[in-house]
Write a structure and sequence with these properties.
Elements lengths: L1 H20 L3 H9 L5 H25 L4 H8 L3 H8 L7 H11 L11
């Protein structure tokens, strides 16, 4: 019985130590890439936004139950093009992205400018 209590106490102490080492995503990014406005951080942010766009497109396509080939067919592109956008290999023109989202996925593209 005593050894079980001791084990539980040790586990709790270990968890507390683990939690002290945890960082929020914002803290991690700041530690790794610096504050907003620095060139290293801006480069990271730009890459992250492009990556995020590909992930969002991929998720929306899957939700609609479409293959890359089916989406490409609906929008007048090709499977390779859709794949490259989803995998952050190719930048899409805004008009093409809008067609993919609106015609291919039946969605609506919304943009925002943050200052």
């Amino acid at each position: 019985m005593r050894s079980e209590l001791k084990k539980n106490t040790n586990r709790k102490k270990e968890k507390k130590m683990e939690n002290k080492n945890l960082k929020s995503l914002d803290q991690f990014i700041e530690d790794r890439y610096g504050n907003r406005g620095t060139s290293k951080r801006e480069k990271f942010e730009k890459g992250y936004e492009a990556f995020k766009l590909g992930v969002l497109l991929h998720q929306a396509r899957i939700e609609k139950g479409l293959t890359q080939e089916q989406l490409a067919e609906k929008t007048g592109t090709n499977k390779g093009y859709i794949s490259k956008i989803e995998n952050n290999i190719k930048e899409a023109r805004l008009s093409t992205l809008q067609r993919i989202i609106e015609v291919g996925l039946g969605g609506k593209l919304e943009l925002a400018i943050k200052l």
